[in-house]
Write a structure and sequence with these properties.
The protein is an alpha/beta fold. It is built from eight helices and six strands; from the N terminus they run αααββαβαβαβαβα. The protein has a four-stranded parallel beta sheet. A two-stranded antiparallel ribbon has the order 1-2. The N and C termini lie far apart (about 60 Å). The model has no long low-confidence stretch (mean pLDDT about 90). Bound molecules: zinc ion.
Length: about 210
Amino acid sequence: MADSNALEGLTQALRKLPGVGAKSAARMAFHLLQHDKPGALQIARAMEHAVNSVKHCTLCNTLTEQELCTTCANPQRDRSKLCVVETPADQAALERTLAYKGLYFVLMGKLSPLDGIGPNDIGLQKLFDRVVPKDARGEALPPESREVQEVILATNFTAEGEATAHVIAQALKSRGVQVTRLARGVPVGSELEYVDLGTIAHALVDRR
Ligand SMILES: [Zn+2]
């Protein structure tokens, strides 16, 4: 075993990356220190810069360096429609179809009780506040006065994605919101990111 606290510290830090266990972390640490010290410094600087400058869009919750992301800031988008997706990658998949002109809300995750991920971890309250804003007296705006007129649930067709869609649909319907779900053209158990564009476009058009 190598004799270095710094090396041990770097290995422990690398283990924070998803999918990286003790062996891989040690291999990465050896590689960086032995063959690519400039690369190691580049990673360190990029991480610090990203951590300090990237935040959540105040409207859609995706990651951005501005108050509003470019999609939310685009005046051409239809602000009466709000499509709920799990990740920025899913949003990108819908954008590639060119079939949707509304706005998005990016959960940055999905409900997953077994992993300890509950409503507060995926910004559900932020979504509800966005769709059903309150007036100056703190009362919910009536449906006809709200900017968002339809919420399209485009969470993945996995067990957790379906459960997340169900919870959101129940909460929003009870507040008088029109809620639709991507149609069933998308294969069960699939993640949008990996579904072909035509299928997603059809699922959007056939939503109910
Ligand atoms: Zn945004």
